[in-house]
Design goal:
With 354 residues, this protein is α/β, with parallel strands linked by helices. 41% of the residues lie in helices and 22% in strands. It is built from eleven helices and twelve strands. The protein has helices at residues 15-33, 46-52, 58-64, 84-96, 161-177, 197-209, 222-231, 243-256, 295-308, 311-328, 341-353, and strands spanning 3-11, 36-41, 69-74, 101-107, 125-131, 135-144, 152-158, 184-189, 216-221, 238-241, 264-268, 274-278. Strands 2-1-3-12-11-4-5-10-8-9 form a ten-stranded mixed sheet, sandwiched between helices. Strands 6-7 form a two-stranded antiparallel ribbon. α7 packs parallel to α8. The radius of gyration is 20 Å and the shape is globular. Residues 247, 251 line the site of manganese (II) ion.
Length: 354
């Protein structure tokens, strides 16, 4: 029987609670469809950092490279200054494992409330392909005369031809494979102001686009994209963008699909090990209360199964999530679901088994 070795990084805050429910769903789906998991747990996160001063040891990174996929709960601890865990663990994982795609579906499931009054599931169904290793996140820049009144702080956006091209190519391929009415790839940029970076992106978009005559090519500035995501989300099929814009527009996307309780994403290296995570943070104020919504983590696990090629198991989880939303949940928000974290996981498992 096929056995997948999965690294599990529950992380901080509510991370361990939602991860536990995702593991329950994964096990149930594997039993039902006939394969196995071996879960290898790693205690990366704020607690380990505070106790041992360790963020992401090289030895752990080397082990992770040998596994089939990584499931991450959340990183972020109130006792650690902002930036330390994010750059030392999450971003280091993305960069070191070359997880150059951040794939973030924005899908409104039936029965989920969206703040967009006149929109429904038929209108909100698109995917953001966010470049995940370059741009403003590359850490290029520095200070001059720090701490003086003449201080200069520079933060540069790094865009390589190769990095832009592989991201755009992934987006075109993904768009071609996706089950959508119209095949359309929208480049989300800022060609009118950021005239170096987005000139490169736009040129590569049209060059690579020649290989995809079946896909409609579309461009919009990032500010306009924010407007359309609210006014006409049905315009979008697949959106490709850089790291910073992708970070921002996917929080907006998470809100129109029902919030952080449901939004999941994949950090993907198509030729290596990939990492799946709920988009929301560690929500420390809800930690240990059985109040947080585990569906985003369960959806991350579902994306992981799809990535591993276990389509049947992935579909089982997706179906179970949809049934849970429609039959059992009052809301997707933490503390308002009408069920606890574990009980939501139990319902999902029940539907997977039935
Ligand atoms: C995300 C998060 C991260 C990011 C933070 C925690 C570093 O907001 O995954 O979107 O900015 O990429
Ligand atoms: Mn973000």
């Amino acid at each position: 029987m096929k056995t997948y070795k999965i690294a599990v990084i529950p992380g901080d805050g509510t991370g361990p609670e939602v991860t536990a429910e995702a593991l329950k769903a994964l096990k149930a789906a594997a039993v039902k469809t006939g394969f196995k998991f071996r879960f290898v747990h790693y205690d990366l996160g704020g607690e380990r950092y505070l106790k041992k001063g360790e963020l992401l040891p090289d030895a752990v990174l080397d082990e992770l490279r040998t596994l089939d996929a990584i499931l991450l709960g959340a990183i972020g601890h109130p006792g650690v200054p902002p930036g330390v865990l994010e750059t030392g663990i999450l971003l280091r994982l993305r960069f070191s494992l070359d997880l150059y795609i951040n794939l973030r579906p924005v899908v409104l499931y039936p029965g989920v409330r969206t703040p967009l009054r006149d929109k429904g599931p038929e209108d909100i169904d698109f995917v953001v392909v966010r470049e995940n290793t370059e741009g403003l996140y590359a850490g290029s820049g520095g200070f001059l005369r720090k701490g003086t009144t003449a201080e200069v702080a520079i933060q540069e956006s790094v865009n390589t031809r190769q990095g832009v091209e592989r991201c755009i190519r992934f987006a075109f391929d993904y768009c071609r494979k996706r089950n959508s009415r119209e095949k359309k790839l929208t480049l989300c940029g800022k060609t009118n102001v950021l005239t170096y970076a987005w000139n490169l992106w736009e040129r590569v978009f049209h060059e690579v686009g020649k290989d995809y005559p079946d896909i409609e090519k579309d461009y919009a500035h990032v500010d306009a994209i924010c407007m359309w995501m609210i006014k006409n989300p049905e315009f979008f099929d697949v959106i490709v963008t850089d790291n910073m814009f992708g970070d921002i527009i996917t929080d907006l996307g998470a809100m129109i699909q029902g919030g952080m309780g449901i939004a999941a994403g994949g950090n993907i290296n198509p030729g290596g090990v990939s990492m799946f995570e709920p988009i929301g943070g560690s929500a420390p104020k809800y930690a240990g209360q059985n109040k947080i919504n585990p569906l985003a983590a369960i959806c991350a696990a579902q994306m992981m199964l799809e990535h591993l090629g276990e389509t049947r198991a992935a579909d089982l989880i997706l179906g179970a999530v949809k049934k849970t939303i429609q039959n059992d949940l009052r809301s997707l928000d933490a503390g308002r679901m009408g069920l606890g974290t574990r009980e939501v996981g139990d319902r999902v498992v029940k539907y997977i088994r039935s």
